[in-house]
Amino acid sequence: MKKPGPWLGLSLILVLLVSGCAPRSDLPYVQLSNLHPLPAAAAGEVVPLRVAVAAVISPKGTAESYQPLLGYLSRKLDRPVELVQRRTYAEVNDLIERGEVDMAFVCTSAYVIGRRDFGMELLVAPQVNGETVYYSWLIVPAGSSAREMADLRGKTFAFTDPWSSTGRMYPTSLVKALGETPETFFGRTLFTYSHDDAIRAVANGVADGAAVDSLVYQFAVAREPWLSEQTKVIHRSPPFGIPPVVTSPHLRPQVRANLQTILLEMANDPDGRRALQALDVDRFVLIDDTAYDSVRTLESQVGPLVLK
Amino acid sequence: MSALTDRLPGLSPPARRLFDRFWAAAGAVSVRTKILGIVLGLVLMLGAGVTLQVRTTLRNALSHELHNRGVSITRDVAARSVDLILVHDLYGVYQLLQDTLTNNEDVRYAFIVSPQGEVLAHTFGDGFPLELVGVNAVESAERYHLQKIITEEGAIWDFAVPIFDGRAGVARVGLSEQAMQTTLGNVTRQLLITTIVVSLVGVAAAMFLTWLITRPVLDLVDVTRAVARGDLSQTAPHWADDEIGLLSDSFNAMIGDLATARAESEAFNAELLRRNRELAVLNEVAQAVSRQQDLDEMLDNALRRVLDLMNLEAGWILLLEANGTRPRIVCSVNIPAEVARREERGGFPHCQCGKLIEERRPLFITPLDETCPVYGLCLADRRVVSGHVAVPLISKSQVLGTLNIACANPKCLSDEDLQLLGAIGRQLGVAVENARLWEEVRQKEAARGQLLEKIITAQEEERKRIARELHDGASQSLTSLMVGLKVLEGLHSPAEVRQHLSNLRDVAAETLETVHDMALELRPSVLDDVGLVAALDRYVAEYQRRFDVRVDSRAIGFEGRRLPPAIETTLYRIVQEALTNVVRHSGAQHASVLLEWTSRHVRAIVEDNGCGFDVSSARQERKLGLYGMEERATLIGGSLRIESQIGVGTTIVVDVPVIEALARGRT
User: Fold this and answer.
1) Does residue A213 contact residue A61 with C-beta atoms inside 8 Å?
2) pTM
């Protein structure tokens, strides 16, 4: 009869070798089942200045573009500045209305609505290329045969934000001028909630056409040249008032005045100029509410803008 | 140090000791176990090696894949959550994390930490393991950072990827090793099962192999044991034309050689034993016969030795005496006296075994016929004699007697035994002959002593007679002469003197004749003067004158030549003695004397027509006359033969070879 001893030993060695249960005592141990409610965010000692930026461009692009400005403001105000972004113009308007943001870069139509609904206050307006106006540009893929809105019948069209004057209201007015509604005229519509995403949608062929903020298009093409190669502008709108910088009606007047001064003086400060350059803005200037009447006219053509 | 390691040069002593220890254990088990061990060991080692290798490789590959996947997923989460975080779409972030968790099996958890360290969204549901936040951190410049952690659910790879260069926080995704471990375990299990299956197949193959190898070897061992027991009839089966087949063949050849050698050895031993027994028997018999003892006693002794050594029961020895005419039972063992007497009185040589006298070789007579004295004889334990071996006792090609063996079993004696008995018979024959010669010599010695005594006595008698003759004859005559001379002295007359002188002369003449006769009788000088033939003629003439017996005397071949004086004297005296015996004992009226000188011998024959006598009894009685004649004949190199028949007469023949006779004459 065979002695089991050596084989038993060999088997044990084998099992030990293949089991791979080497101890890892040096690794941190976490009890995953040990769950606790998350602590409430600690209120900071210093209340930051909260600045909202409407999603004209993508949040990431916004954050990158506005970071120098916010940093500049923080240094000038000697208090932290917090960037607040929301997906839609309506959400930003809500925050402004409730005073949860102090200052906001909003789009033209959002200002028109905010002004009308809860007294959103104009602070300054950016001057770009010496102007305080901007346009809505109708863009199609570079290889598209469309030459005007009428050529986009039955196609896929990308809107930016439901409230956007350049991204939604102006193209809607063009469709209406053709005696149609966007729902009947276009084969399909989609919302990108930002202008640069609309440009990318056209550039990538996801959409057959889109109407975008001329400032954003120029800004985006400057930063990503391939977008200009993949897209072409087939139509330009009449000028609209440039998207302003507004403040919440709840903001203290001293802070508002202080902010206005800083913004208006930025162009005279090298530091401020660098921040302005990041935004492709010449300077901030004072602007009158009448500058936005053209938008109000557009609104009357396509129907009233409502919250939510 | 084992013999195996002696063949492995260049081993260091520790390795050698280790190997010896291994070999002490491995070498003690059977070939089957060795092959089984080798196969199992190889399969297990191969299985273990392959399993280890595959496991290691697979672990590396799976780890690499898990690592890549973790980085990919986390970076995806980070990229896709940037905008959501920036626009504070926490539900969108939650949704993203939840989707990530759902769509990736390995993902155990995912969460987003804000730059301020707050957990913005996570997949733990109600509550959050707070210590998890601090175990992994990533610099904003890093692509990702991996930290393995241990949880109650096993090892988890925690990936941290900065969102928007850390400005929007950090995405954390935990990937469980469990799937990897499960895969590893499954693969390992499969490999181990394969190894076990292969092991089983290997064991079966090894058992078959060992059966193939050990079966013929075990058969060989069986045959070896049979051979060791002395059974050379078995052969190892030839299984196949391989090394073991060769071994079987050579082993069978060896068994064959062994069997042949054993047969030869046994035959040699049997031969040796037989020879040894023969020698022992012959030696015993030789010892028995070499002792100076009585012939009968010696033969009895020899018979008992032979029976004893040859495991025989009954036997007897018979000698032929009186010139082969009278059988005599000398000794017997386990033979009743009446049987022996029957044999003596008319059995041998007229029975079946009588023909051995002509054939001169041992005869095995079976079945016996009724004339055989031992027919129907019962031996000890009631066995009846069925056979009878008769062995001639031979000396000088003459059968002197027989050695007889009676046995119940017809096969009690082999041909070799018969040969041995033949040798014993010759030995005993020589011994009998020697004993007889010895007896004869002894008798002759005794007779010679008596003769000497008689010669001396005869001399004395002769001297007395001569003295008496001288005293009575010559002395008386000389005395009367002395007296006559004295008388003559007193005479004065010349006539008286003359007369007286004449008387004296007569007396002197008579005295002279008396002395002359005496001298003649003492020594026949006529033999010297005239030769044997003339002397015998005168003696025969005188003999016939004195006794009343007529004697014819003839001589042939003596003309003109003479024998040497000693031969003549001896022949003269023998004839004189023979004639004296004729006149003293035979009562014969006629006798003849014949002298014959041929080219070969000189012969004297004296015959009479007297009463005759028994020669052997006369010899035994040591009649000095006969013995003296034989002695005289022997002294001159001749021989004397006496033939006598009672009532018919006696013939005495003396033969002297001529060469012998002339040689003696020259000396």
Assistant:
1) no
2) 0.50
Tell me, what CATH number does B352's domain have?
3.30.450.40
Assigned domain for B564 exists? yes
Q: What is the number of structural domains in chain B?
A: 3
pLDDT at B637 over 60: yes
Residue B244: predicted pLDDT: 80
Chain B residues inside the 8 Å CB shell of A28 = 135, 147, 149-150
User: Looking at the DSSP assignment, which residues form a beta bridge with residue A141?
Assistant: A231
**Can you tell me the distance from the alpha carbon of B589 to that of A254, in angstroms, rounded to the nearest whole number?**
222
Question: How far apart are the CA of A148 and the nearest CA of chain B, in angstroms?
Answer: 33
Burial class (CB in 10 A: 0-12, 13-18, 19+), B67: middle
Flag whether B255 is in a domain.
no
Sheet holding B601-608, edge to edge: B550-556, B590-597, B601-608, B649-657, B639-645
- The CATH number of whichever domain residue B531 belongs to comes to 3.30.565.10
d(C-alpha B424, C-alpha B303), whole Å: 10
Q: Which residues contact A151 (CB under 8 A, 6 or more apart)?
A: A145
State which amino acid sits at residue A206. V
The answer as to whether B477 is a domain residue is no
Task: Report all structural domains of chain A as residue ranges with CATH numbers, in order of start.
Answer: 29-131+242-302 (3.40.190.10), 133-240 (3.40.190.10)
Q: Please give the mean pLDDT across all residues of chain A.
A: 85
Q: Last residue of some domain: B379, B402, B432?
A: B432
Rounded Cα distance, B605 and B641, in Å: 10
- Amino acid identity of residue B146, one-letter, is L
CB-based contact, A10 to chain B, within 8 Å: yes
Q: Is the pLDDT of residue B119 over 50?
A: yes
Residues of B in contact with A38 (CB under 8 A): 118-119, 127-128, 130
Residue contacts between A and B (CB atoms, under 8 Å):
115
Q: What is the largest CA-CA distance in chain A?
A: 108
Domain assignment of residue B88, given as a range: 73-181
Q: Which of B150, B181, B212 finishes a domain?
A: B181
pLDDT of A69 > 60? The answer is: yes
In CATH, what number is assigned to the domain containing residue B121? 3.30.450.20
Contact A31 B150 (CB under 8 A): no
Q: What gap in Å lies between CA A301 and CA A176, rounded to an integer? A: 9
Cα separation, B652 vs B646, in Å, equals 14
Taking only residues 152 to 171 of chain B, the set having a beta carbon closer than 8 angstroms to any beta carbon of chain A reads 152-153, 155-156, 164, 167-168
Q: How far apart are CA A235 and CA B75, in angstroms?
A: 39
B476 belongs to a structural domain:
no
Phi, psi of A205 (to 5 degrees): 80, 5
